[in-house]
Amino acid sequence: MKQNILSRQMPAIAAAIFAILLVPGCTGFSEPPKPVESYVLSYPAPMTAGTKTTAPDAVLAVQAFDAAAPYRSRHMVYADHQLRRKTYAYHQWVSKPSEMVRDRIMRDLQAARAVRSVTRAEKRLEAPTHVLWATIEAFYEDDTRSPWQAVLELTATLSVTRSGQSGHCIIMTKTYQARQNLSQNNPLGLARAMSKALAEISEDLGADLRKALRR
Fold first, then answer.
1. Distances from the Cα of 213 to the Cα of 105, 130, 148, 204, angstroms
2. Residue 188 and residue 192: Cα distance in Å, rounded?
3. Residues 70 and 129 in one domain
4. Burial status of residue 47 (CB atoms within 10 A of its CB: 0-12, 13-18, 19 or more)
5. Of the candidates 45, 189, 59, which has an alpha carbon nearest to the alpha carbon of residue 105?
6. Are residues 107 and 157 in the same domain?
């Protein structure tokens, strides 16, 4: 009798064991975590007007850039509402936006010969004549518009150093804004559009710096 009862219960017991084995972690095996993909800002360096272009005789020290609170990490931020910000789970920037933007702008200023020399403020090899710093006010994907857009806003400040004195005299402060449409609605599309937005802002900033330094 007991044997008959046990034989009837065997299919149910086997099904229960099979179900337990399917639960991740119960057998000591689990799926590997989904890899996180990282993205950079990339676009061609600007060209000078010609080999005879003379750069202003200035040594520009570029301080570390700051960023508004939502954009101080490597998270790729997007907005699906005017008052809401979210981040991608498995996609991020290769470094903080403030670091990427600073590196690209320094490269562009040197390539365009906006000044004689561009150096990092923390690693300068010669005394700077001017100092540049900036704050990233916006750096996100705007999904509330069609098509989606990359939004970049940056406030830059240029000062001249006073020989023999500790202070700086600010000679230029300006906020730059750029929006670029995404060619595809995903993180890769955001990286491409944000690169275009930065290229636009970097070109405008370089032109303004030349004017300010030639006064």
1. 17, 9, 37, 14
2. 6
3. yes
4. exposed
5. 45
6. yes
For 129-188, the pLDDT digits (tens) are 999 999 999 999 999 999 999 999 999 999 998 665 556 799 999 999 999 999 999 999
Q: What is the pLDDT of residue 215?
A: 76
Give the range of the structural domain holding residue 25, as residue numbers without chain letter: 1-31
**Beta-carbon neighbour count of residue 189 at 10 Å?**
17
d(CA 9, CA 18): 14
Task: For residue 182, count CB atoms less than 10 angstroms from its CB and return exposed for 0-12, middle for 13-18, buried for 19 or more.
Answer: buried
User: In 10 A of CB 3, how many CB atoms?
Assistant: 7
Residues whose CB falls within 8 Å of the CB of residue 87, separated by 6 or more in sequence, listed in order: 75, 76, 77, 78
DSSP state of 187: H
The structure tokens listed for 210 are 């030349």
